[in-house]
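Exercise 7. Given the components listed, write out the predicted structure of the assembled complex. Treat all entries as one system.
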Amino acid sequence: MSEANATALQPKKKKNPSSGSYKRKKALVAYSFILPNFLGFLILTFVPIVFSVALSFCQWDSSNPIQFVGLENFVYMFTKDSSFTISLLNTLYYTVVTVPITLILSLLLAILMNCKIKGRVIFRSILFFPYVASLVAIAAVWMALFNPTMGPVNEILRAIGIANPPKWAASTTWAMPTIIGLTVWKGIGYYMVVYLAALQGVPGELYEAAKIDGANSVKRFFNVTWPTVTPTTFFVLMMLIVSTFKSYDIMFITTQGGPGEATKVLAYHIYNSAFVSYRYGYASALSVILLIIVIIVTLIQFRVEKRFTSYL
Amino acid sequence: MKFKKAVALGLSATMGLGMLAGCGSDGKTESTAAPTALQPSTVDTAEEVTLKVSLWDYSKTQYYKTMIDGFMKKYPNVKVEVTEFDADNYEDVVTTQLSGKSDLDVVFMKGLPGLSALIEQGHVLALDDLLAADETWDAKAYSGLVEATQVDGKTYCVPFRKDNNLIFYNKRIFDEAGVKYPEDGMTMEEYYELAKQVTSGEGSNKVYGHFTHTWSSNVYMYARRIKEFNQMDTSTYDALKPYYEVMVKMQDEGVAMDFGTAKASSAHYRDVFQHEQAAMIQIGTWQINNLLEEEKLTTEDKITFDWGVCALPNDKGEGNTTAVGGVTPVAVGAYGKNPQWAWKFVQYVCGEEGAKVLAATGIVPGYNSPAVLDIFDGFAKDYEHCPEGLSKYLDLEEYVVEQPMVKNGKAASKAFDDQHSAIMTGSVGIDEGIELLKSKVQEQLDVK
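Answer.
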């Protein structure tokens, strides 16, 4: 009797978690979850990138057969293309100025929005608004504001006594600053929100301890706030650098790379070569160079981040 | 882990190698797929045919419909199917479509640089054999433009429209200032003096003597008309110096709107002239159609002033001896299914019948004939503000093509426009600017 009971009460044979078939089945389930996204990535991102890299060694105008030309595109780029040097320098100028200004302003704004001031929710929304607004609409208004003869900005400058205010987007000296201004103004909302989230993760006790030790607000910023948000700073820095390097839509809408080639950035030069001059091979070569630059900058950043980030 | 890495690397390597293998053979092979020629043959008028035609602004333009209806009435077995593309990106879209071997039978292009890209990429057919076999074909009716638009001695298009660039002036502003009207054969200095005399007002009441539209042609057209300048030949660029000097002088002195402001506010010559903000503009003869339309408006935008035209001034004082302007070409698609009927369509719209429809709206057809010229002279009777004798500026033996078709023409033209904006905004001196123009344009022309 007891043996029969014993057999009846024997638990069901459990699957052995370390057996090969079990692992494989679990793996298959996992892969099937990521398959749709992976397929999309493969077809729409990975394959075009590989095609682009291969095309950079070829010459193609999108109709005649693709011709393999080896390193000719790269040789031309570094020896004969004056626009390449100019656009690279413009991109560096644009990045080196936009990134720090956006970073610092968005951090300061986030600190401000973190304080308990009346109506800060409304202010946060107002500051975030430019980021979501249409670039085309904002660019049109910005250009109207900075119109050299009829715009309000120059009217104000003339009223306060500056006889010859800058011609903004109509001058090779001031066109890039005008675009930088637009980029900064449009972007700080987003990065302010990112920093706000980070700031709200700073433990309040640290500030109290600092206050007790007699630190004023500046000292508190440099010794408590800044070190605590370094991971976010690196994230913001990386996002900013990548996005400014890729930037082209702002130049396209406002100045079309002009006047002269003052606002022609590398991404604009790529667009021009591909879709205006029908030189897809050369445009691919340019984008490979852009890719390499961005990868190098990002790798440097990762290295630096390891050394300077402190995690709580 | 190792296995996954190997798979990833293998995948990338295979794709990359596959791409390279798919490229053409080693060394330089003939890159242009020479477009095939259209052979003459008779058309079967009993055969049901659908012709695919690409156009821009088809829904906004009455004359296309009138012409197409006329063609379909003449050949009832043919149905014309129009594919309309957005006007702003029309040329890029059509080129992309044809890259995908789209079976468009008839392709209209906005201008010659766009057509030159199609020819280079083999998307349109050569028409010479057909023209030779056709007894009704008269190349002389096209003011030398058929020859001027040939590439490598082959004809790829027929001029559907042509334009002559003229000075359009507002007679009322001149009358009020007590200044005599501009006339043919002025020098640039005389033109500048005249413009200065009719400049008046400040701020919102400002009336400019001259309005320079932001296109680079608004400076080089004067030199182009007397063949001192060829945009695709940088050795002729020094001829532009006096013209840039006058244009920059006019804007510095407030006689013309400065380039930066015009660009920033997207000022357009049509609006400026219509609202009497400028006494004179330099623009193509399509403005005639604009002005005729504006006279018939019923809103407050209706024009109430008499206007006139005269030939472009230049530093030689040359009068109305040559015309200069763009050509709107129409070509036969290389992958269409009905090339013979496509040619019949092209013949119709570019021939006498199509020309009369165009002329009736004030647009200058590529085809010239006494009937067409009469229509233009007739406008003075039906339109109060239109001047008499318009045909004088259309019936010229030589039409200089604004932008000749050469390889890399589009890229060169873009490089030219870039440096033009630098000169006109005063960011660079005129001499330095012209040197930059030469080097930048030559760089593009030299690309293999």
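Discussion: Chain A has one domain: 80-311. The beta strands of chain A are 58-59, 67-68.
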